[in-house]
Design brief:
With 180 residues, this protein is an all-alpha fold. 82% of the residues lie in helices and 0% in strands. The chain has helices at 2-7, 12-29, 32-48, 52-68, 72-88, 92-108, 112-128, 132-146, 152-165, 169-178.
Length: 180
Amino acid sequence: LQLCAEYKGTNSDSLRKYAHEGLLLAEKENNELMLATFYRYAGISSFQQQEYDTASLYLDKALELAIKHKDKSEEASAYLATGYMYTTQGDFKNFIEYLLKALPLFEALKDNERTIETLVGIGSAYRRSGNSEMAIKYLNQAVDLIGESEDAFLNALTYFELGAVEPDVRKVIEYEQKTI
């Protein structure tokens, strides 16, 4: 699991290798929750390599198992990963749809980092779709949680996205200074 998490954003070939090894181990152990996690990682590696049909199959299986076992954290993570698959294809409508499914789960789990990540993703998608009003709504919700976050990159990204959509130049400058 640790190797998959480490390679998730940096090396899709290594992620694929370790996800498939994890799937074999989880099947051998008959551990469906572990299977869900490794299906999710296999899905991520597939969409990173633009194999969207394969990614969809893996992510659907991860979601199915997470729901079956009532694992809200894995369910939210599967929704988030599926959303990211859609955003890599430029499909912001489905990206937003899946992130809106993940959001209440992360909130219920009191996972502030993932809640902020999800809010910023939704806000960014609305911004890129030309809906500034909805972008500001979700990005401001993320800003409200930043005080509880220690993730400097995520905090800077939140202010960057808000600065990109804010019509008030003084606020844009304020937000951009917070990204430094």
